[in-house]
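Deliverable D2.4 — example input (structure tokens):
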């Protein structure tokens, strides 16, 4: 045994099972054995006391019954004194028998006749009661023994014991309840030869089935109470079963509580192990999530809390480091993209400006006025293009740092769209269908910024739309907002690509298939401006509708009522 424990450490659950076995199961089994024996002794005493109590109850019922009959006969005798003839007395007695059917017979007899009556007439199954008149005669009442039985056992109808009422010294049975002849004969045989009078006595040979008798002198009757085997077995078995059930429930409760405690403890310890392993593998964001309840020890809660604090600090430091690395990477990418964009997108307008400027400065050729104006317009257009690209680059830090300032006010939507269309450079002459011109809604926005948004969107539609396909602008009211759509015919854009179009320096056509000019900042800037003004922008692409953008802007307060 010692070698086994030296080679293998027991787990917590195994140790708890051993402790439960020696500290709970064995003591509880011994306690159950002792309690069961004590309970049997208590049940025997309870059965004896119950037999004595029932014998006394029946004895008291006999006295009450006899006293009640005696009072009734006294009243009858008193009333009979007022009748002066035997005929009237007989009519009175007949009336009583009719009204009180438990009297089988009421008769006035002489002293000589009275001597022929005994206390009980077993042949007629009646009890004989009497009362002497003033003239020396006797009023004799014969009572049905069924009424005696009903009176004696009215409070014991639900009791399962066998009760026998015996009359005289010959022990003739006059009333019983739950009668069984063989058990009755056995009880008579066990009855002592000499009975103690006017006292309840326990007798019998069966330990768990006590018999009790009560010998009364007035009247001369004997009451026997027999505790049946079924009653004894049910009572002892019932109490034993309750003890066993309580022991079983207690054991199950102990196992349940200990099992629950062990499971929570085991789960929490596993959480500690997993968190330590995760930290060792570089997963610094791992936290210990303990199942905290009444079963969770304070030490585990404290250890978990301190571990999470340590892990949180390491995780924050790791996040900061990754964030700095990401920022450095983004800055490097931004620098590379900006250099590529500036070198690629700025070169064309600068080359054009440089070429036309050199042409205008030449002295060796003569330039007519029309050519001069055309050259100057080209220089101005390319300069404006450079200015827009520079403004796009300058507005990026404000968008990313949420430092945009707006002069928000109610602006007619139709005028915004019309002004934006006017500012759009539509060199290809594509048709722009403005279905917003009839709109009378006003939106909350900054006038310059919202024009910048729609100029950018319309220019993109013109730039990327298929040749000879129109650009369509539409609107619809949606609760307290208005949704403006800019649509153009274009090939289906994959959903994965569609999600990236709001990122910086992202274009529909990549560097290998690029057919249009642009910095790839337009949609990024548009999204930043729209959201900063409290709006929302979404991109959609389908084979049926092509490519379209939906801009949702809040309506002015006066417009929301309608």
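Example output (designed residues):
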């Amino acid at each position: 045994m010692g070698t086994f424990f030296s080679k293998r450490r027991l787990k917590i659950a195994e140790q708890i099972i051993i402790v439960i076995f020696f500290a709970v199961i064995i003591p509880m089994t011994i306690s159950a054995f002792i309690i069961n024996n004590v309970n049997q002794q208590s049940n025997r005493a309870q059965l004896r006391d119950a037999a004595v109590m029932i014998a006394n109850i029946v004895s008291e019922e006999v006295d009450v019954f006899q006293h009640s009959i005696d009072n009734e006969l006294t009243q009858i005798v008193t009333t009979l004194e007022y009748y002066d003839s035997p005929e009237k007395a007989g009519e009175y007695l007949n009336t009583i028998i009719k009204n009180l059917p438990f009297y089988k017979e009421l008769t006035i007899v002489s002293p000589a006749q009275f001597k022929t009556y005994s206390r009980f007439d077993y042949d007629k199954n009646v009890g004989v009661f009497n009362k002497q008149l003033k003239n020396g005669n006797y009023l004799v009442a014969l009572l049905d023994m069924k009424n005696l039985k009903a009176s004696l056992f009215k409070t014991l109808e639900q009791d399962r014991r066998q009760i026998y009422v015996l009359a005289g010294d010959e022990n003739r049975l006059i009333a019983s309840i739950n009668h069984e002849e063989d058990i009755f004969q056995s009880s008579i045989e066990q009855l002592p030869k000499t009975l103690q009078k006017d006292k309840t006595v326990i007798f019998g040979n069966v330990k768990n089935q006590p018999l009790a008798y009560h010998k009364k002198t007035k009247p001369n009757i004997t009451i026997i109470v027999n505790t049946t085997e079924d009653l004894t077995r049910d009572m002892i078995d019932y109490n034993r079963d309750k003890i066993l059930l309580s022991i079983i429930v207690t054991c199950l409760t102990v196992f349940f509580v200990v099992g629950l405690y062990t499971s929570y403890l085991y789960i929490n310890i596993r959480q500690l192990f997993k968190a330590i392993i995760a930290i060792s593998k570089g997963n610094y964001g791992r936290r210990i999530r303990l199942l905290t309840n009444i079963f969770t020890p304070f030490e585990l809660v404290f250890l978990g809390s301190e571990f999470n604090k340590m892990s949180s600090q390491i995780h924050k430091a790791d996040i900061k480091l990754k964030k700095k690395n990401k920022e450095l990477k983004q800055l490097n990418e931004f620098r590379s993209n900006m250099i590529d964009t500036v070198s690629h997108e700025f070169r064309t307008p600068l080359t054009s400006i440089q070429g036309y400027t050199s042409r205008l400065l030449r002295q060796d050729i003569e330039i007519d006025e029309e050519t001069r104006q055309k050259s100057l317009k080209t220089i101005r257009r390319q300069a404006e293009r450079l200015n827009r690209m520079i403004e796009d680059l300058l507005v990026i830090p404000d968008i990313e740092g949420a430092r945009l300032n707006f002069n928000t006010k109610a602006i007619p939507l139709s005028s915004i769209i019309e002004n934006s269309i006017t500012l759009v450079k539509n060199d290809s002459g594509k048709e722009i269908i403005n279905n917003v011109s009839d709109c009378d809604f006003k939106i909350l926005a900054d006038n310059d910024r919202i024009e910048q948004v729609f100029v950018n969107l319309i220019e993109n539609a013109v730039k990327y739309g298929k040749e000879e396909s129109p650009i369509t602008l539409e609107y619809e009211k949606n609760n307290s907002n208005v949704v403006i759509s800019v649509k153009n015919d274009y090939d289906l854009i994959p959903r994965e690509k569609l999600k990236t179009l709001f990122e910086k320096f992202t274009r529909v056509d990549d560097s290998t298939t690029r057919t249009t000019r642009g910095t790839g900042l337009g949609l990024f800037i548009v999204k930043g401006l729209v959201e900063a003004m409290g709006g929302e922008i979404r991109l959609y692409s389908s084979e049926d509708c092509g490519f379209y953008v939906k801009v949702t802007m809040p309506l002015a307060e006066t417009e929301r009522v309608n």
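The radius of gyration is 57 Å.
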